[in-house]
Each structure stands twice: as C-alpha cells, then as structure tokens.
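We were asked to recover a plausible sequence for a given structure. The inputs and outputs are reproduced exactly as logged, with field labels preserved.

PROBLEM: sequence recovery
POSITIONS: 650
GIVEN STRUCTURE:
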C-alpha cells in the first residue's frame, strides 16, 4: 500500500526516505555554503518538533516565523505542522506595530525569530500581548545578556527536543500520523493594500495540490536549484520554495543576507527563478546603470545587439520559423558578446524557466528578458488562490496576457468585468473573519478577485487593473492607472509612479526617482547634489523624467483603447514612497487611496493649473525618529501626441 503524502510532514519523511543523501537546503554563512541533506533535515525537524512539544506547543497553536530566509526558520514551520499547529510567517521589515496586529489577530503564543532585531520587536509586542509566552532565536549575536522569561535560542530548543525524543521515541511519528490534509497548513496575511491585512488560512490539501500542478507544468525535478530570497510571509515564497521543494525534492538555497542576494545568485546559478516585477525592474536598472557607465564602444555594441534581440530574440526563444539566417547569425554573435555575459553576471545563465507574478509587469520589461533568451513567463494569482490561477505554457507566451487557466481551475468573467476563480487551491477562510470570507467566496464557490480582465480570442486571460482602480476620464476614455505606472517604471530612472485621472479631464502623475540610477546619471554629468530631495528638485532631473513620460505618451497614442489617457502633468516627489509610512505595502505595492489622501494638496495643484506647490511631509527615519521634509515642487507639463496620427503611422 502506498503511503499517503497529503501533508507537508509526510512529504518530508517521504523525501528523507527516497533521497536521504540529496541536498535539500543550503545556506551561505561567513562566505561558505553549508549543506543539509533530506535525512538531516528530517532529523532537525524532529528535534524542533519535540522541543516545541516539550514547551507546551500543541494542536491548533500558532507559531510566528519572522526573519530572512533561513533553513531553521523553514524547519520550524514544518515542526509546527508536525504537531498540528499553524505557522504564521511575518514580514521581517515590518515595524513592531504592524507585527503586533498580526500577532494579536492570529492569537499567537509562540514565535521563532532570526536575530536580535526581530527579537526586540517581539519583546515590545509581548508587553501588549502577554499570550506571546515563548520566543526562540536563531542568531545569538547581541542576545547574550537578554534574560527575559520565555526567551531562548533554537540550539537550546533542539537540546530540549533531543531529551524529549529520547524519552518517547515514537512520539514524532505518532504526531505526523495525526495530521489530516484538511488541516490548516499556514496562515498568510495579505499585504493590506486597501485596509488591514487579512489572514488567509490555507490547507495542506490546497497548497500541495497547487504545488503538484506547478511541478508537473514545467517539469521541476530534484536536480533543480532555487534561491529563496523573497519574504517568507509572502505566498509566493511559501508555494515556490517551501511547497515545491517538498514535492519535487530539489534544493533550496538561502542567501547570506539580503545585501548579498545578487552575488549569491551568481554563485548558485539557479535553474528555476521566481520574482515579482520589482525584482526584475531592479535588475534591469542595475544593468542600465552599468551600460551608461561603460565606454562608448561597449555602449554602442550593447544597444546594437539589443536592437537585434528585440527584433528576433523572442522568435528564436520560441523556435518560431521566419527568422532570416543573417539575423540568426547576428543574434548568435550577440549571445557571445552581450547576452551570454549579461546573463552570467546576473546569475541567470542556467535559468530554464523564470516566472513573475504578484502584480502586472510592464510589456517592455517582459520583452527585454525574453529577447535575450531568458524564458520569463507570467502567472496570475493571489494569496487566496495559492497564487496560481493562470500560467503561460512555454511557446505560448504573450506579453500582454497571463496565460490560460491551470488544470482544475475555473475562471469566469462577471458582468462587471471582475475575474472570478474556483479551484482546489482556494483558501479555506479568512482567519477569524467569517463576514469577509462570505463576501469573497460566493454561494457557487467562486472567489471574487477584485481584478478586472477579459479573455482574448486564444483563451488567454488579460488583466487590465484592479477592478476598483479602473475608471474613465471625463470624456469616457478608459483609465487603467496600473498599466500606465508599469510603462513608466520600465525606465530605470523611475522607481515608483502613481497616476490619477478617474472622472477628471486629464491624467496626472506623481513620480519617485530611482536614487541609484539618477545618482549615477548625475555623477556622469558632474551634477552636484546633497541627497534625495536635492536631486529630485534639480531642473536637469525634471527634464529627464519628462522625457521618459513623453516616450510613454508616444507609445500610448497608438493604443486604440488607452490613447487618450496620456499623462499631461506631473511632479517629481521630494521623498521616496515608504512602506513604514503606509504609502506602500510590505510587498511594495502602492497604496493608492492612502497616497491620494496624504498628498491631496499636490493632486489638487496638478489639476488646478498651478506651476508649483509647496509641501511639508512628516517622515520616519530608520532609527525611529520622525521629522519633516519640505519642498517647493515644480509641476511639469508633458507633451502629448495626436492619437489619430499615431494610429495611421502604426
């Protein structure tokens, strides 16, 4: 009889049985990669589970996990599942108040933290939430003299677990057998774009089913390598790192620190890669900075071969006919001189398949990666659907769609244009929020995504924007702010953008510059500046950003649907939008409503005809202090293009 593999603890034991000596986890520590096999991981989980049980953790309890991607944090998650408990990952860059909301909402009594920084936040929360009685830490640096009750190292917890397991050797296997596939495997909190985050309760069955579909879809196997660097609290990391590794048995590689991710990426050379659009945007920004810093000959060569790649690269990637021999030879030479070295320095030379999701990616950004031979594909989903709703099969990739529904997934478009989803991967409920659950899941079992979209003639889903954000200008022109913002963010000089226009006579935008890209640009031109605010106020920077906006307008003019939604006026913000100030979510999504309220004087000035606007903004510094940043912001006029003429030219 085949042993059931319907929970994560059972999957772990299966992997330890069939591939005990294969690498399961790697972590770079002090510059050296440490490796654990599947058999070693199973033993580590056994010790942690027994230690937690000895400390009073049991069925139904919740265990907070907070820190960067660390093997012991992943093992703590499965140790909690062994005992019938529920791991609740927290965003490691969240401030204590944000963490406190999740800790209290999920009624958390136990926590595993990476280091002193996270322990300090949890101890602060503990003063308001005394039910948080046990805190365990991985990295002991800075914690030697901490003597709070209930605080101990994971090493001490392992020692307790070893003693507990010795007195009851059958305990661990007995707990694994008690688990059911319908049990809650994890509670993942949404980013809270429009309000307080909600805890999404996902079962073992939902996550495992989805992971199996993904593994089969792209043929993921034990020989693959993946760098797990995304927040553990994000559903993308749980599914693509935690869930898939237990299905396929490949190796998860944990970087040394967030600051070394790019170096570690080059060393590992993963075969499988997943990242939200902002990561691909950041990588491209670094590429463009280096190109601009290069000599004249290298710049000329890069731009020439990128022109070749843009013309024929995607056809060659998808093995489509009709590419002239001369272009194939040029592309092959470009691979030797430009594309190959570029992919190698980015750590993407071994990539077999790469995905992006979480929010829409700009078509130009998508085009760049695929044209140089990286099989980047889009997927569509969210926390409540175990991410995957639609994916793009290799060879059927369209720049403006997210692919067809995955096996077992039903997608329906409501009369309002909203995308509805029904699948085995749907959440069980929002934790402690029955009314919100009933609003999201209708009587037929369809989840209301809140996204607006439609199917193209080939059955591919196209997402326009969040349904609540899609609107119309005063003349009836469709207004899709996220679409415009993504086109702006393709330029390396623009880090964030927020567009306004619903119900108004024109589209206006607030823009954040990218400090690294514009700083490099300014240095090459001997443009002096003292900091972000000073740089953002420079007239030369304004001209550069206006040029980027006008390029977007020129492209929009040829769009039959969005041609009249060109950006007429804009201003460059004097400060970066910040998650600590509620302007962005922890997954770096714009909180549009909050920004519209906070910067309402600026928005009003854009629409009033003023040429400048004085603003004072309260900011929070890294050390917790608050202060005020003031500036007289210049409002810029952007050139727009005749729609009819652009369509004739196209």
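RECOVERED SEQUENCE:
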């Amino acid at each position: 009889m085949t042993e059931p593999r319907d929970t994560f603890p059972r999957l772990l034991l299966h992997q330890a049985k069939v591939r005990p000596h294969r690498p399961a986890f790697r972590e770079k520590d002090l510059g050296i990669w440490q490796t654990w096999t599947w058999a070693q991981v199973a033993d580590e989980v056994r010790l942690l589970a027994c230690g937690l049980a000895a400390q009073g953790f049991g069925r139904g309890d919740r265990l907070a996990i907070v820190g960067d991607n660390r093997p012991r944090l992943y093992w703590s998650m499965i140790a909690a599942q062994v005992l019938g408990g529920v791991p609740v990952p927290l965003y490691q860059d969240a401030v204590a108040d944000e963490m406190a909301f999740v800790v209290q909402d999920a009624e958390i009594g136990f926590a595993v933290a990476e280091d002193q920084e996270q322990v300090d936040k949890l101890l602060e929360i503990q003063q308001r939430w005394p039910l948080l009685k046990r805190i365990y830490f991985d990295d002991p640096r800075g914690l030697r003299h901490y003597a709070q009750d209930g605080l101990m190292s994971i090493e001490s917890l392992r020692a307790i677990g070893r003693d507990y397991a010795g007195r009851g050797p059958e305990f661990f296997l007995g707990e694994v057998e008690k688990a059911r596939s319908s049990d809650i495997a994890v509670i993942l909190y949404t980013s809270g774009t429009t309000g307080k985050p909600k805890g999404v309760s996902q079962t073992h069955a939902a996550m495992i089913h989805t992971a199996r579909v993904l593994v089969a879809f792209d043929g993921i196997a034990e020989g693959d390598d993946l760098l797990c660097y995304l927040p553990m609290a994000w559903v993308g990391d749980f599914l693509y790192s935690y869930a898939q590794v237990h299905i396929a048995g490949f190796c998860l590689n944990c970087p040394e620190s967030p600051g070394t991710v790019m170096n570690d990426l080059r060393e590992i050379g993963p075969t499988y890669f997943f990242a939200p659009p902002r990561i691909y945007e950041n990588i491209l920004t670094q590429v463009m900075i280096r190109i601009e810093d290069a000599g004249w000959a290298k710049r000329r060569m890069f731009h020439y071969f990128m022109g070749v790649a843009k013309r024929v690269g995607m056809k060659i990637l998808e093995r489509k006919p009709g590419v002239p021999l001369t272009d194939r030879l040029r592309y092959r030479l470009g691979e030797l001189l430009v594309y190959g070295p570029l992919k190698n320095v980015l750590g993407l030379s071994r990539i077999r398949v790469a995905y992006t999701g979480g929010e829409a990616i700009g078509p130009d950004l998508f085009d760049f990666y695929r044209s140089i031979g990286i099989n980047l594909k889009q997927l569509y989903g969210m926390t409540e659907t175990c991410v995957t709703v639609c994916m793009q099969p290799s060879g059927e990739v369209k720049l403006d769609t997210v692919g067809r529904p995955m096996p077992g997934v039903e997608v329906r478009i409501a009369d309002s244009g909203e995308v509805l989803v029904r699948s085995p991967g749907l959440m069980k409920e929002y934790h402690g929020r029955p009314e919100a659950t009933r609003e999201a899941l209708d009587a037929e079992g369809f989840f209301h995504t809140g996204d607006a979209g439609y199917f193209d003639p080939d059955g591919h889903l196209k997402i326009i924007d969040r349904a609540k954000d899609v609107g119309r200008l005063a003349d009836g022109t469709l207004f899709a702010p996220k679409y415009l913002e993504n086109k702006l963010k393709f330029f390396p000089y623009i880090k964030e953008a927020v567009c306004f226009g619903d119900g108004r006579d024109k589209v206006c935008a607030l823009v954040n510059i990218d400090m690294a890209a514009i700083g490099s640009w300014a240095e090459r031109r001997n443009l002096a500046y003292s900091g972000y605010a000073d740089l953002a106020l420079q007239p030369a920077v304004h001209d550069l950003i206006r040029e980027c906006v006008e390029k977007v307008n020129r492209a929009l003019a040829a769009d039959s649907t969005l041609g009249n939604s060109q950006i007429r006026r804009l201003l460059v913000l004097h400060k970066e939008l910040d998650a600590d100030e509620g302007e962005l979510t922890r997954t770096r999504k714009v909180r549009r409503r909050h920004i519209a309220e906070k910067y309402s004087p600026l928005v009003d000035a854009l629409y009033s005809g003023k040429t400048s606007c004085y603003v004072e903004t309260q900011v929070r510094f890294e050390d917790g202090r608050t202060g005020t940043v003031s500036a007289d912001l210049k409002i810029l006029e952007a050139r727009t293009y005749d729609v009819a003429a652009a369509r004739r030219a196209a």
